[in-house]
Structure formats: structure tokens, C-alpha cells
User: Fold DUF397 domain-containing protein from Actinopolyspora biskrensis.
Amino acid sequence: MLHPTNWRKASYSGPNNGCVEVGRVGDGAAVRDTKDRSLGYFTADRQQWQAFLDAVKTDRFE
Assistant:
């Protein structure tokens, strides 16, 4: 099993904001809660992650 590497915190994070970190895992991504990393993380393959990013960029979650 691959373990996530290169964790990066969201650029819009602030001291009182809920935020996430994204790491690389294989050719996909892993996501975890910055405030409680002990909860673990979930993963998405390349196609799932790209679909999520496309949805965010086109405001489909608004």
C-alpha cells in the first residue's frame, strides 16, 4: 500500500478556518483534516481527483 507524500495545506487556510491538506499517493491524491490528522485520510485516483478539481473550478458546489 502506498502512503501519501508531499502534504500541502490549502492556501486559504487561516488559524480559525477548517482546512484540509492534500498529499500525493500513486497517481492520485489523499485528503485529510489539518486540525485532526489522526483521523486518517481518504484517497482518490487520478480520474476522481481531476473530476473533483473540475467541479470546484466550475462552481458546481455553489
The chain has one domain: 5-57.
